[in-house]
Amino acid sequence: MSAGPPFAPIPSAPIPSADAGAAPHANGILTIDLDALAGNWRWLRDRLRPGAACAGVIKANGYGLGDTTVARALVGAGCRTFFVAQLDEGLRVAPTLPRDCRLFVLSGPTPGTEAAFTDAGLIPVLNSREQIDGWAAHARAHVPGAPAAIHVDTGMTRLGLTPAELEALRRDRRALEPFTPVLVMSHLACADMPGHPMNAQQLKAFAAVREAFPGVPGSLANSSGVFLGSDAHHDLARPGVALYGVNPTPGRPNPMAAVVRLQARILQVRHVDAPVAVGYGASHRSAAGSRIATAGVGYADGLPRACSGRITGYIGETPVPLVGRVSMDLVTFDVSAVPETRPVRPGDLIDLIGPHNPVDDLAARAGTIGYEILTALGFRYARRSLGGDAPGGGTERT
Ligand SMILES: *Cc1c(COP(=O)(O)O)cnc(C)c1O
């Protein structure tokens, strides 16, 4: 199928830099712009077909940004339906959500965990006949009519009922009687490639699946799926990564506002008098006259080692190439291009992800995708969030 209409990008302002004096104890500062996050959600919601609702996918700790923090901002934007991947994620987030929210758990109950779902008010996504039968038995015995989503595989061969299982279920309607299917869903394999024939196949297959569940709302589109056009929207879109500022339309300009700024603190600056090797493996040689800044972030913080020698940091407007290897806690930049009028000093911050080097660029240079960069963001960063629904929204909350 062809791409949907090109949407005008969301108007947005760059995320302000952390003050170098902020969080002096931390070697890296992760700034999360909750207003940009809320704006991204509203922007996607406004592009859905009339009548379709927009959920928020906050699995994997809200794509690394903090699930309860991002959930609160999305609730403030008007989001009432959330998805996590795992029961434990659901148990952590559920108590922080207002009572009128729904929280779905994508991997569904493993045998024996059904009661934990109903006790916490979580709605399982049932991905197999085993999960359906387990949920039906639990509902019949303890919570007649308990809600659940049903996931049907339309071509991804991952989770979801197979066509044969769906057919068997059609002939055995009593299997569903003890509980209430509140959503029928499927997942797109190639939504980020709008020209891929798989999209049309899955859209057609999902339309047929929905006939087996008359009156039950349907959900198909992830972030990129929203851009496939209104036929992909059904009743509920499930965007994740686009909310967090990653480009859901690879190869086209990113319509989303940036949500993350990541800055590494400089620990030491070395003036090189004679050519020297830099870092493990002596993989880089610096020329005499260059300046090397060592910053306190490494692969233990989720900066991929594959970035070695491949990414560019920024000090203000000046690009500073990462040289040598990324090590566990440290990384080295050639800061020779920074004007002497603006001396680079210990304590200063270098943008790893910022207005000049978006998360998608860093990911591409590391041979991966924005999803992996965000979900790998480490636990050692000082995290600050901007805006959100706190009293005095738009101000800094730490
Ligand atoms: C992760 C996930 C989403 C969100 O996908 P994005 O590409 O991040 O928008 C939606 N649905 C399912 C089933 C998922 O696993």
Architecture blueprint of SSEs:
Elements (H helix, E strand, L loop, with lengths): L27 E6 H12 L7 E2 L1 E2 L1 H5 L3 H11 L3 E4 L2 H7 L8 E4 L8 H7 L2 E4 L2 H14 L4 E5 L11 H8 L9 E6 L11 H15 L6 E2 L3 H4 L9 E2 L22 E12 L4 E3 L5 E3 L4 E5 L16 E4 L2 E6 L7 E4 L14 E5 L5 H7 L4 H6 L6 E5 L9 E2 L1
Parallel strand pairs: 1-19, 2-10, 3-4, 4-5, 5-6, 6-7, 7-8, 8-9
Antiparallel strand pairs: 1-11, 11-14, 11-18, 12-13, 14-17, 15-16, 16-17, 19-20
Bound molecules: pyridoxal-5'-phosphate (PLP).
The site of pyridoxal-5'-phosphate (PLP) has 11 residues, from loops.
Would you give an account of this structure?
This protein is an alpha/beta fold. The strands form 4 sheets. Strands 1, 11, 14, 15, 16, 17, 18, 19 and 20 form a 9-stranded mixed β-sheet that branches. A 7-stranded parallel β-sheet has the order 3-4-5-6-7-8-9. Strands 2-10 form a two-stranded parallel ribbon. It folds into 2 domains: 34-244, Alanine racemase (TIM Barrel, Alpha-Beta Barrel); 260-357, Beta Barrel (Lyase, Ornithine Decarboxylase, Chain A, domain 1). The longest helix has 15 residues, at 197-211. 24% of the residues lie in helices and 22% in strands. Strand 8, helix 8 and strand 9 form a beta-alpha-beta unit. The protein is elongated. It binds pyridoxal-5'-phosphate. Pyridoxal-5'-phosphate (PLP) is lined by residues 57, 59, 106, 187, 222-223, 238-242. Pyridoxal-5'-phosphate binds next to loops.
